[in-house]
Design a protein that fits this description.
Elements: H1 2-17, H2 21-28, H3 31-50, E1 61-64, H4 69-89, E2 107-111, H5 119-131, E3 134-138, H6 147-157, E4 163-165, E5 181-183, E6 192-194, H7 202-212, H8 218-222, H9 259-263, H10 279-288
Parallel strand pairs: 1-2, 1-4, 2-3, 4-6
Antiparallel strand pairs: 5-6
The structure holds adenosine-5'-triphosphate.
The site of adenosine-5'-triphosphate has 16 residues, from helix 4 and strand 2.
């Protein structure tokens, strides 16, 4: 039930916030403290500025989700905040929590299916639908249709939508000047863009996501750092592992910056969880470059995040 998932996400967030950042600093640097601050700001946006303006339980808000790492981080925080908001709404009631119904069974979400996505990413999206109880609107697959038209069609099916949550960050292309709450441009269908993740950087995304112990899209484990179309996305060249020279071994055993998060993950199993790479994807990826790559979370430079993207033809 969505209620259980929301409670679980709330517990993940609380667990991350309760990490003693001072004692973890020797192994993790300042990233945990910074991520804790980023979470608190995202929570404030959601609980104080957004949920007080649009009701998250009646369909006014939809969540844009494609299975990428940024929207997954935001989804976990968003669901955790839904739980908090629910608790706040029943405060003062004479009845115990168990006698109150969580007011939502599925989370309204929207996916714009425009590109030739990797089958692994499609599979991960479907797994997310089940795991997080998403009610997913998928736009008709049509490469000729631009984003504004796709959203227009979405709004004609879901006219109750007034605002859409987006997991964009300031370091993303065209993200620099965005605001946490803003109207769409005049040339777009009109709704509010809700962007509570703008201030997060790449290290913070990985620190939180790896700590959560939630399954992430398997493409990241292969060396992708951002999910794009099959035709324009390669593994990140900065993650390629050089061929061994003479007796030197490959740098495979090096750790990422987030070893602490994996070893101490919320799930308690010290493991990374990714969905399985589709066989066809594997062939396509290996055909292009047979080298080995470090997983995506070995890259923490925001400016290199999209180095695997080719210019569109
Ligand atoms: P990654 O950068 O690793 O691919 P991501 O997809 O979450 O992660 P972006 O590609 O920067 O992040 O996209 C920003 C946000 O825009 C996403 O978090 C999501 O909310 C929204 N978004 C992007 N593509 C789609 C899509 N095809 N359908 C619906 N929402 C999308």
């Amino acid at each position: 039930m969505l209620q259980d998932v929301a409670l679980n996400c709330y517990n993940i967030v609380q667990s991350y916030l309760s990490i003693d950042a001072e004692s973890a600093v020797a192994t993790t640097g300042d990233v945990i403290k910074q991520t804790q601050e980023s979470i608190q700001l995202s929570r404030r946006y959601l609980l104080q500025d957004i949920f007080t303006r649009w009701d998250p339980f009646n369909g006014e808000i939809s969540f844009s989700y494609n299975g990428g790492k940024d929207c997954q981080v935001l989804l976990i925080i968003y669901l955790g905040c839904l739980w908090e908001f629910f608790l706040m709404s029943i405060q003062g009631s004479q009845y115990d929590l168990q006698f109150h119904m969580f007011p939502l069974q599925q989370l309204p979400t929207v996916y714009i299916d425009q590109e030739d996505t990797f089958l692994t990413a499609q599979d991960f999206l479907q797994r997310s639908v089940e795991r997080y109880h998403l009610s997913l609107y998928e736009s008709a697959k049509d490469k000729q249709v631009d984003m504004p038209s796709a959203f227009k069609s979405f709004l004609s099916v879901h006219p109750e939508t007034q605002a859409i949550v987006i997991g964009i960050r300031h370091t993303d292309p065209f993200g620099e000047t965005l605001q946490p709450i803003q109207k769409t441009d005049p040339s777009w269908p009109q709704f509010y863009r809700l962007q509570p993740l703008l201030h997060w950087n790449l290290s913070q995304i990985w620190s939180f996501l790896l700590y959560s112990g939630e399954e992430v899209c398997g493409l990241y484990e292969m060396g992708f750092t951002s999910l794009g179309s099959v035709n324009n996305t390669l593994r990140n060249p900065y993650l390629r592992i050089p061929e061994p020279i003479g007796s030197m071994t490959k740098a495979e055993t090096e750790h990422s910056d987030f070893q602490w998060e994996i070893e101490n993950n919320y799930r308690g199993d010290s493991n990374m969880h990714c969905n399985e790479i589709n066989e066809n994807d594997l062939n396509t990826i290996k055909q292009h470059d047979s080298s080995e790559f470090h997983p995506g979370w070995y890259l923490t430079k925001d400016e290199w995040e999209r180095a695997g993207r080719l210019a569109r033809k």
